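At this stage, I needed to go through a protein sequence along with its fold in token form, as given directly below:
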Amino acid sequence: MRETAMLEESDVYYPENLFPKFPKQHSELAALVEHGEAAELQAAIERVFSDAADRGLSHVFLSGEDLCTATSAGGVKRLAEAVSGVFDAVSIVLVLRRKNDYLLSHLNHYFRHHRDAVAIRNFDSFMKFSPRDTVARWSAAFGDDAVTVFPYDSPTGDGSFLGRFFSAILNVPLTETAIKASANANASFDLLSAIVVNEAVKTLPEFDLTDVNLAYLDAFRHARGRMPVFESDIASFVNNLFPDADWVIDGSADLTRTPPAANPLGPAAARNYLHALSDFFATLRALYCSDQPDMPLGRGDIVTAYRAFLGRPPDRDELNRLVAARKTLPALRQMIVDSPEFRRVHREKLNAAGLNLPALDISLTATETQQHAMFDHLRGNWNRDGGEARSVIPRPGRDASDAAPAARDDAHPATGAEELNDLRQTLARAGRSLADIHRMVDFGCGSGGFTIKAAEEVEEVVGIDVSAARLEDAAAAARRWDIDNITWVEKNGLAPGDVAPYDAWYSRFMLQYGPPPLIERWLREGLGGVRDGGVAIFQVPTYSVNYHFSVESYLENADEQAPFRMHCLCQPRIFEILDEMSYKILEVRDDNAVDIPRHWVSSTFVAERRLTEKPLAEFE
């Protein structure tokens, strides 16, 4: 965590992994203090002291959520005894919110976390916290001078709590980025959503609060909407259930001050709130309500479908007509897809990136050491992330995270029949046929569906892949289908391997996963093994909107990148390589290998090697 590093720069140690349930926070400290064994508590305190000393740090920061509300006088005394023989000095900082806001927050928490659906009238018996008694309890154990009351709310109304706390208590200037990250991670529900969870979701047998929390955070990621007037009224009612005297503490800001009257949401905030709230409820429906494809759609679903498919909401007459027609989801989807408007809106050809796009900034110069590092990183990702699914190179319509072979068998020859037919037609357009090919290399063969099918018509086939797991699947499938004219080769390094010469070099869905220097290296390696008169058929992305590549940046940030990130090599560079290696281009076609046509261009190249012509060209 960046925040822990910032603290350590200021001689403060924040222990992580101290508790198992929430390794980055100390909310379990309250339970340990109140209910744990004295020896266990002592061991935890000594451990954080030792860890701080090992780092050369002289201060330890423990953030004990619920220590105020859940710790008895006996628990506070146990904590005081545990730290007294370890640390030279101890400071206790009790963070207190204004009464009104604190009670509303805990009512919200009560609605969500109590195991049963609860009512507001039960809240006063549940809520036992007295700030005045809490300060007295901690002062009795640690001394008045050791206890500080820090207001959660700014007396002047400016500055976030985290920023003020870190600056005043720890002398650490917390960045705005860190403050926003922490605030997002701990976002609380708006009260209306909490009430819905309390009464309509918690009672369901499959209710899971973690799923609900994640759904809320996703829906409200870009909105902090609430209904301020409603929440203000509820807070006022709850506030009157508890005496103000418990919140009067000498030397502290006025914690009983009533906030000013709330104003309703403005139009922009109201729209943001409605959007987030509808997303949250839609997720709850998906989590806890079974699909009912035969049920007529409501107005909201119809509007959502129109926006998703057509980029606009239906007008009022359309909406009324569709509601009256009682359209189901399958019927509405088919109606929209079959409409002239849908075809007009989605008039996208295979690769529709426009001709007005700028040139790409792609660095191709990489040392041998850098190329080794790139390959090792890629191979590690493929073997780690692709190993479980036994899938490294996705075939059309498949993803590298697809199910394991038990759920689908990509190595079945039938899966390669369509791809082999594409190759057959591609060769025919170039005046060639499979009969011209006696030895062929499939670079990036995956689990061998295409390779095995090709071996039925080509005398000898070599399948190359970086995944040993996929090659094992492929070899096993070949044996099942009595195919014995394939050699399987694991690509486990940058060395070219001893597979040349051959009549055809074929690659699809492989080159796109290598950074540009490796794409060029693999191209040169594969093209270099083709016999005079042989052909190369390969697919590679040649443009991506906003794509750029720097060798140094790639290696510095390799671990943060998606394991199957795609790359491209521009057509002019590929033409140069083909020319340098004595190839005549027979065909270049945009293809559908990368099905993101507005942002990517993927091309299939067909080229014939003509070694006997090269000397004449050079002589001229």
Remarks:
- The chain has a mean pLDDT of 84.
- Residues 337 and 343 are 7 Å apart (CA to CA).
- The first strand starts at residue 12 and ends at 13.
